[in-house]
Design brief:
Elements: H1 2-25, H2 30-58
Helix pairs in contact: 1-2
Length: 59
């Protein structure tokens, strides 16, 4: 179960890194800044809840 939790964490980090790279590849328009802020907020929430959700995901 620990290895699955580690795997899920690694995959979430990969998705986060991909999103950051894609965001930086876009132009810095004001609408893009709002979207990136929302994306960062969502990723923070997911990463914060990951330990609590990992057990429920695996069940």
């Amino acid at each position: 179960m620990l290895s699955v939790s580690i795997y899920v964490n690694e995959r979430l980090e990969e998705v986060k890194d991909k999103g950051v790279k894609e965001r930086s590849a876009r132009d810095d328009a004001p609408a893009s800044a709002d979207a990136s802020s929302t994306h960062e907020d969502a990723m923070y929430t997911i990463m914060a809840l990951n330990p609590a959700l990992a057990g429920q995901i695996l069940e």
